[in-house]
Amino acid sequence: MSNVRIQKKLAAKILGVGVSRIHVAPEHLEDVSQAITKDDVRSLIKTGLIDIRSPSTPTRGRKRLVRTQKAKGKRKAAGSRKGGMGVRRQPEREWVLRVRKQRQYLRKLRADGVIDAKTYRALYLKIKGGVFTSLASLKNYIGK
């Protein structure tokens, strides 16, 4: 087996790539080892005895693993989070949902005749003012 290390270095320099990307045809190692000058190497490149391998790309195995884990709901702990609390949990959106739920419950009570219109209006304004932190606190207040 002939040593073609120098020819690979020359080819890498000519082609502007790394030595690891240079490929020499195994059946023509003797011919390639005879090349001494850059011109010799250039002619071998033209004939196709020396060519460039495509760069190796990173494997996607880890990416697939992470995707399956995220589908299961993993990787959501404190170390994986970026941004403040208001980024992942939007306070305004939570408030809107909470108020909607409380108002819906209040309308149900009024429709069932549990509370009259005056009490409904008073409680509605309390909900709007943020007196009740949750539906449970509203139920607790009405229960008293």
Automatic annotation (TrEMBL):
Q: Name one Pfam family in it.
A: Ribosomal_L19e
Keywords, A to Z? Ribonucleoprotein, Ribosomal protein, RNA-binding, rRNA-binding
Provide the organism lineage as a comma list.
Answer: Archaea, Candidatus Marsarchaeota, Candidatus Marsarchaeota group 2
Q: Any idea where the Large ribosomal subunit protein eL19 domain is? A: 3-144
Q: What is this protein called?
A: Large ribosomal subunit protein eL19
Q: Which GO terms describe its cellular component?
A: cytosolic large ribosomal subunit
Return the Gene3D superfamilies for the record.
Answer: 1.10.1200.240, 1.10.1650.10
InterPro entries for this protein: 60S_ribosomal_eL19_sf (IPR035970), Ribosomal_eL19 (IPR039547), Ribosomal_eL19_dom (IPR000196), Ribosomal_eL19_dom1 (IPR015972), Ribosomal_L19e (IPR057259), Ribosomal_L19e_C (IPR057260)
SUPFAM superfamilies linked: Ribosomal protein L19 (L19e) (SSF48140)
Question: Has keyword Ribonucleoprotein?
Answer: yes
Role description? Binds to the 23S rRNA.
For whether the record's keyword set contains RNA-binding, the answer is yes
One GO MF annotation is: large ribosomal subunit rRNA binding
Quaternary data:
Part of the 50S ribosomal subunit.
Per the record, the similarity remark reads: Belongs to the eukaryotic ribosomal protein eL19 family.
Source species? Candidatus Marsarchaeota G2 archaeon ECH_B_SAG-C16
GO terms for biological process, alphabetical: translation
Biased composition of type Basic residues is found at 60-79
Region called Disordered, residue ranges: 52-91
